[in-house]
Amino acid sequence: MYGLTPFGGTGFGLWDAFNDFDKNFFGGKMPLNNCKTDIRDDGDKYVLESELPGFEKEDIKLDLSGTQLTIAAEHSTNSDEKDDKGNYIRRERTFGSYKRSFDIGDIDTEGISAEYKNGILTIELPKKSPEAPVAKRLEIK
Fold it and tell me: Which helix (H) or strand (E) is 27 found in, with range?
């Protein structure tokens, strides 16, 4: 039947009210650390496009480590409005960050290029040229 769990079967849990507070307050689910990224294959290269609205070019860092490409972005603002006595009328702070890594094992890392324009980070990732199979004759002893 319903067992001994309070609120069982009603779809309401004691902590749901607290978990949903921020969703209700901000008018819906507010994704944290969420950045839409599209990757397309253009034949000789991949093109990665990440939406990073609200960030400046200086806020974005691209790091290569081995076969990993990491995109990291961090931005914060602080705006204060005070009356003539120095008391706050309004004080707002915002902070946003994003970090994501991609495996680029089949990419020519020397040819990677990136551009940030109108909130979109575009990275061109040229593919490595296919290596011809090595053929050699083995000596018989």
Answer: none
pTM of the entire predicted model: 0.62
b/e for 59-84, b at 16 or more Cβ within 10 A? bbeeeeeeeebebebebeeeeeeeee
Contact assessment for residue 104 and residue 125, using Cβ atoms and an 8 Å cutoff? yes
- C-alpha to C-alpha distance for 72 and 62, rounded to whole angstroms: 7
Reported confidence tier of residue 34, pLDDT bands at 50, 70, 90: low
Could you tell me if 48 and 41 are in contact, meaning their C-beta atoms sit under 8 angstroms apart? no
Q: How far apart are CA 106 and CA 123, in angstroms?
A: 15
